[in-house]
Design brief:
Layout: H1 28-38, H2 43-55, H3 65-68, H4 78-91, H5 122-130, E1 148-149, E2 154-155, H6 199-217, H7 219-223, H8 227-240, H9 243-251, H10 255-262, H11 270-279, H12 284-289, H13 295-300, H14 309-318, H15 322-334, H16 343-350, H17 354-360, H18 362-400, H19 407-414, H20 422-436
Helix pairs in contact: 17-18, 18-19, 18-20
The structure holds zinc ion (2 copies).
């Protein structure tokens, strides 16, 4: 066993975080995965044998609850802070807190900011791999509001193309750039989810990515500004746009929500702040940094873009060119290389809302959904077959090497596969029967 490779008394390698102080800074979950890889151990071992004892969080070794909520490590709370502190001490790199949103804890509402599972740009991953650059995951990709890669003009991918599952931020066996379910490489040169957006929608997506990038760059500075200051700034913006009612109407934000910010001290969600800043044509980082009394902000307090996201969506819906969509739909159906994409994926590819697409082309959408279902089914049975072969081979190999193939011994060999699943258990039983009848 290689347990002795790292011990608490030995500091971990001083691995440098990627793109510090930029909008594309690495996330803490990405750093953890790379740190494990740099020590040639699994994430599970790094956390279980080094970080957990250091933090006195033995529960990291039990069950999967911690891993299910690993996104917390990139976020605002105590978990992110505790890990960042521990990793800073263990690696001697004191900038680890910058890989999280801890500094925005008192400024931003923590709800709904980060996506539950990983999203990535397959083109970025592939490009880094081919150019021998370090493959990593930017903190920016964790933001729910970020949907596109500005470098490649494609949607971020939320689903593994091989097993069609979402990919968790961290598992005991995570590797950067690989699916933790089926182990396949997530980068690709062939990725085709090109943006086919209405210009107004594209502007909104690009605005969000730029603005959140700036928020990330300035987060330590912004964190020094109290929330009270932001309440004052919002009040100023509301006043200058003609009061609560006018502001509410123009931005389609309920009046009660606005009152809860200015009277109740509730923090607006990141999405709403982005919407406001987009309308006022200011950067979200400017909103946080600006002083209430600076002329700069007052000068901008005219709603230049009174369009909000829902307006953009409605506008896009009204302007949909169905003939063009049909053309694209046919091309996608005929494109063998695309395999069997889901209706959601197709909607994205043709640049149309999924529900609208269903309403307009019900038969074709049902066909697409059926094909997708079949694909998932065949991937599932292929995986079951592969798992079965792995288990049988492992059980027989153990027996041939003089080790009794108990459930535990087999599981050790086939980890992270487990015999707890019904099909896997019966594969093991079958292998035992084969051994007995030989
Ligand atoms: Zn990219
Ligand atoms: Zn996969």
């Amino acid at each position: 066993m290689t347990l002795g490779v790292v011990s608490i008394s030995t500091a971990l390698y001083s691995l440098k975080p990627i793109r510090l102080n930029s909008g594309l800074v690495e996330s803490q979950t990405s750093y953890l995965s790379r740190l494990a890889e740099n020590h040639s151990i699994s994430v599970g071992m790094l956390l279980g044998k080094v970080v957990a004892p250091f933090l006195e969080k033995e529960y990291l070794n039990k069950g999967s609850r911690f891993y299910d909520h690993a996104i917390e490590l990139n976020a605002f709370g105590n978990q992110a802070a505790a890990f960042a502190k521990a990793l800073s001490i263990l690696t001697g790199i004191d900038s680890i807190p910058k890989l999280t949103l801890i500094s925005l804890k008192d400024t931003l509402s923590p709800w709904n900011v980060l996506a539950e599972t990983k999203r990535w740009c397959p083109l970025c991953l592939e490009e880094w791999k081919r150019s021998n650059s370090i493959v990593y995951e930017p903190l920016l990709w964790s933001f729910k509001s970020v949907n596109i890669c500005a470098n490649h003009n494609v949607f971020l991918n939320p689903i593994c193309p091989n097993c069609a599952k979402t990919v968790p931020y961290l598992t005991r066996t995570s590797r950067i750039g690989f699916c933790s379910n089926c182990r396949c490489w997530l980068g690709s040169n062939e990725y085709k989810a090109v943006l086919n957006l209405d210009p107004a929608q594209l502007l909104w997506e690009q605005y969000k990515i730029k603005s959140i990038g700036n928020l990330i760059i300035n987060k330590e500075l912004i964190g020094e500004h109290s929330f009270y200051n932001i309440c004052l700034l919002l009040k100023a913006l509301i006043q200058r746009s003609g009061g609560v009612s006018a502001f509410s109407r123009k931005l389609s934000i309920p009046k009660s929500t606005i009152s809860s910010w200015i009277n109740g001290g509730h923090k607006p969600s990141l999405d709403v702040l982005l919407k406001i800043c987009f309308a006022f044509e200011i950067d979200i980082a400017e909103l946080f940094k600006a002083d209430q009394y600076t002329d700069f902000l007052y000068a901008k307090c005219v709603i230049n873009r009174s369009i909000d996201k829902s307006n953009i969506d409605n506008k896009a819906a009204r302007k949909i060119d169905w003939a063009l969509i049909e053309q694209k739909l046919n091309a996608i159906i005929e494109d063998q290389e695309l395999g069997a994409p889901s209706v959601r994926e197709v909607a994205r590819l043709v640049g149309c809302n999924e529900r609208l697409l269903y309403n307009h082309f019900p038969e074709r959408c049902s066909q697409i959904a059926d094909n997708y279902k079949q694909l998932i089914q065949s991937i599932k049975s292929r995986r079951l077959e592969e798992d079965r072969n792995t288990i049988i081979t492992a059980t027989i190999a153990l027996y041939n090497n003089g080790v009794y193939p108990t459930e535990r011994n087999v599981e050790r060999l086939i980890s992270p596969l487990t015999l707890r699943r019904k099909n896997n258990y019966s594969a093991w039983k079958d292998a035992l029967r084969m051994i007995i009848t030989r």
